[in-house]
Amino acid sequence: MNVRPIVSMLVVTSVVLSAAASTVAQSPAKKKPLGKWTCEEFLAVDDQVKPRAVYWATAYAKGGKPEASILDIEGTEQVTVAVIEECKKVPKESFWQKVKGEWRKLEAKVKKSQ
Questions:
Q1: How far is CA 68 from CA 19, 32, 37, 43, 103, in A?
Q2: Pick from 60, 47, 63, 51: nearest CA to 20
Q3: pLDDT single digits (tens) 41-65
Q4: Is the full-model pTM beyond 0.90?
Q5: Which structural domain, as residue segments, surrounds residue 14?
Q6: Closest CA to 98 of 83, 84, 85, 108
Q7: Residue 65 sits in a domain of what CATH number?
Q8: Helix residue ranges per DSSP H, the chain
Q9: Cβ-Cβ contacts under 8 Å for 50 (sequence gap 6 or more)
Q10: Chain centroid, CA 29 distance in Å
Q11: Burial per residue of 14-45, b for 16 or more beta-carbon CB atoms within 10 angstroms, e otherwise
Q12: Count of domains observed in the chain
């Protein structure tokens, strides 16, 4: 087994997560942990930051599992759009729960199409 692609993916994932965490941390209005954000707080961040927040939340949600080392950019883009739409409907609900719910929907859709 060639370990080089796995190591490369881990490095890329680490860089993306670090960038997302530092970008989110720089937002003065967002002093609480990302996992405790409401949809309203998520929607208030800059549009360029939204995908980074979803990347981070996804990796955090899958922490401790082998899938956590894989960054699914296409899936995350789909989930980001879905989370934005769902959060607009219910801004007081949990951003974290919306991310997890939208990933479950996407994974079910992928399994169904296989």
A1: 17, 23, 21, 25, 13
A2: 51
A3: 999 999 999 998 988 887 776 664 5
A4: no
A5: 4-113
A6: 83
A7: 1.10.890.10
A8: 4-26, 39-44, 50-61, 73-89, 95-113
A9: 42, 80, 84
A10: 19
A11: eebbeebbebbeeeeebeeebeebbbebbbeb
A12: 1
